[in-house]
Amino acid sequence: MEFAEFAERAGTIEELSADTDIIEAVTDLLASANDDLEVLARFVQGRMFPAWDSTTLDIGPNLCYAAIARAAGQNVSANDVEDRLAEMGDIGAVASSYEFGGQQGLAAFGAGRAELTVAEVADELEALAHTEGPGSQDTKIDILFGLFNRTSSQEALYLARLVLSEMRIGVGEGTVRDAITGAFDVPVETVERALQVSNDYGRVARVARDEGESGLDELQLEVGRPVQAMLAQAGTVTDALEDWNRAGIEWKFDGARVQIHYDEDDVSIFSRNMEEVTDALPEIVEYTEENLDVSAIIDGEVVAMNDGEPLPFQEVLRRFRRKHDVARAREEVAVELRAFDCLHADGDDLLTAPLTERHDRLQSILSGGVSALTVTDDTDDIADIEANALDAGHEGIMLKNPDSTYSPGRRGKNWLKRKPDVETLDLVVTGAEWGEGRRASFLGTFLLSARDENGEFETLGKVATGITDEALAELTELLEPYISTQSGQVVDISPNVVFEVGYEEIQQSPTYSAGYALRFPRFLGVRDDKSPDDADSLERVIRLAKSQ
Questions:
Q1: In whole angstroms, what is the distance from residue 376 CA to residue 148 CA?
Q2: Would 307 be classed as within a structural domain?
Q3: Strand, helix or coil for residue 287
Q4: Residue 409 carries which DSSP code?
Q5: I need a surface site. Which of 9, 171, 248, 464 has the fewest CB within 10 A?
Q6: CB half-sphere exposure, 414, CA atoms < 13 A
Q7: What pairs with residue 233 in β-bridges?
Q8: 473 falls within a domain
Q9: 56, part of any domain
Q10: Which of the listed residues 131, 163, 195 is the one where a domain comes to its end?
Q11: DSSP state of 371
């Protein structure tokens, strides 16, 4: 398929408002995709790679601006592109406002305005993603320039959005799931299960087309390929016992979620975001090799410990961030595994097995490091377990439906987290202000947002409390690459970083676009293990506000 046709179809989809119309349009796109089916199933969501693949383009806004400016002509600079973005608010609209095709250079020499294909765009962006080392930034700009230099106005719009993962045409995972169902006449339940075990919309679409329902049924978990973690929502003991009659109780650890894959030779460890963190956690690799004898996929938490006492969550994140001098980091912060679920063991997929069976299987294959699971309907027993968890320095307890299956990526009512302290929120940073005086070189006040039902980020307040000078320096280094525009001391930041924030209460307020504001927000830490999609929704914020 020519990229121009994809851009035209994307434009049509963007203009639709009804979910049924959007699904129908995506269904038509997939049905006509031919050899480009796998790529298009990802492109339409704004993805370049399968959901399980942690590979990224690693293109910040500034590199994209530089490529657009170069393709736009000698009289256009990256600053001009940024200024135009401040006016228009959409990098796609900015790219489409320029006339490309007249510039020549390394990446475009001899190319002229030959029609781009979807496959060519995918190949070039994959090459860009794997470009590293000295001179890599220049090479990436060359590749992007070559692509933009061959685009029409509409193609440039969707290429720019695709590069910065801002497709914004109203197509989510559920839309593509339903489109696969409609395009290839397979049951939605079958597609849903195939997506859960493969975590690859492109592959599921191809199998649905080429092999039908029977082919989808044959898709299984693969050791070494991560799947989305099952998620919990806030709840109470009363909720659990009313819904399930009894509950599985576990300690809630203040650690980082990990998914461990072992094929009897190699260990791979993935974060909650499915980013591989194996090299950063050598002691967990060693522990797995010593205590696990069969191939398996295990769900658990990595907890920082010191002389038997748990350390705060931020200490675990120090280990996750470390890419160099891991041995020294290991000496400074020791981590231990607390495994609590088993998705696969010795050739058997266990997603559809009840929690109690999965936990029994986990205990049978892993020698030690398994979190205790107590199934009870006695509130006094539950209170005792919670007290023991708190006495041991942990956060509280988890409440789990003993009969529940494992649902990757789902935040349903089968897992509830109960913490006795004040609720916290994971919110996305969408803006900031430079400090003053001795803090003038640091970003010092941060604008927090939550995603609404349309996928837009709505502001809830600013946080500047609870941050040391050392932390400000780290946060500035972390956020600077995502600054998209600046006016005086105020900057806009593209949504990439998630803060965990404490607060006293949530109030209705006309000051912020969400219609609500956090009262006395406090910075607690960066959630490196969460993407903006995993952060708390505006719906949850409103629910918490109404429950106060």
A1: 61
A2: yes
A3: helix
A4: T
A5: 464
A6: 17
A7: 416
A8: yes
A9: yes
A10: 163
A11: P
- Let me know if 215 is exposed, middle or buried by CB neighbors in 10 A (0-12, 13-18, 19+): middle
Check residue 294 and report its DSSP letter: S
Angstrom distance (rounded) from CA 453 to CA 537: 8
In this prediction, residue 110 carries a pLDDT of 42
What is the per-residue pLDDT for 179? 98
| pLDDT value at residue 521 | 83
Which residues are annotated as catalytic? Answer: 252
pTM above threshold 0.85: no
**Main-chain phi, psi angles of 109, to 5 degrees:** -60, 125
Averaged in consecutive runs of 10 residues, what is the pLDDT profile of the chain (548 residues)? 97 95 98 96 95 89 94 92 93 94 50 78 96 93 95 96 92 96 97 94 98 96 95 86 95 93 96 90 95 96 89 82 77 90 96 97 94 93 85 89 93 81 84 87 94 93 81 93 93 95 85 90 88 93 87
Measured between alpha carbons, how far is residue 523 from residues 415, 471, 474, 480 in Å? 27, 10, 14, 18
Q: What angle do CA 344, 345, 351 make, to 5 degrees?
A: 30
256: which strand partners?
Answer: 302
In a domain, 223, yes or no: no
Domain with 527, as residue range(s), is 424-547
Region class of 348: left (phi > 0), else alpha (psi between -120 and 50), else beta: beta
Rounded (to 5) percent helix, strand, coil in the chain: 45, 25, 35
Q: Is 47 helix (H, G, I), strand (E, B) or coil?
A: coil
Please give the Cα distance from 65 to 81 (Å, whole number). Answer: 6
Structural domains counted in the chain: 3
Helix (H) or strand (E) holding 418: strand 411-418
What's the CA gap between 68 and 181, in Å, rounded? 38
Residues 309 and 447 both lie in one domain: no
Whichever domain contains 30, its CATH number is 1.10.3260.10
Q: Which residues, 6 or more positions from 450, have their beta carbon under 8 angstroms from its beta carbon? A: 425, 427, 428, 457, 458, 460, 514, 535, 536, 537, 538, 540, 541
As beta bridge partners, residue 499 has 427, 526
**pLDDT of amino acid 107:** 42
Query: At residue 150, what is the residue type?
Result: R
Sequence-separated (6 or more) residues with CB below 8 Å from residue 293: 264, 365
Between the alpha carbon of residue 296 and those of residues 30, 224, 258, 336, 407, the distances in Å are 34, 10, 14, 18, 17
Are 386 and 429 in the same domain?
no
